[in-house]
Amino acid sequence: MDLDMHEALTDDELTELALAADPDAPVDADAVSLFDAVSEEEDGERSGLLPGWYMPAVAGGLRPLHGWKRRVVWLIIASFLLINAYGLCSTYGHVGFG
After folding, report:
1. How far is the C-alpha of 75 from the C-alpha of 34, rounded, in Å?
2. CA-CA distances (angstroms) from residue 56 to 1, 41, 50, 53?
3. Cα–Cα nearest to 52, from 63, 66, 38
4. Which is nearest to 36 in space by CA: 27, 49, 48, 45?
5. Which residue of 5, 74, 89, 96 sits 20 to 30 Å from the alpha carbon of 44, by its own alpha carbon?
6. Per-residue model confidence (pLDDT) at position 98
């Protein structure tokens, strides 16, 4: 398969390339890390352990809950804590002995 670096590859083509690749092939000396290639920093330095494209920041439009909505959230949290305190398991959507 002849690759042109300016063409988009389909999923089938990427799968074909991945299956044809040698997993034991040595890495080229001039290979660039994916983290460095898509880094958001101008100088190429990462500011955290994970890049921004992997775990983006939380959306800024969230408003704090007030009134009855806050009480409902606290009731749900308290019910899960109470279920776990009694030794019951609610992981899979139904309450049973864990």
Report:
1. 44
2. 35, 14, 9, 6
3. 38
4. 45
5. 5
6. 56
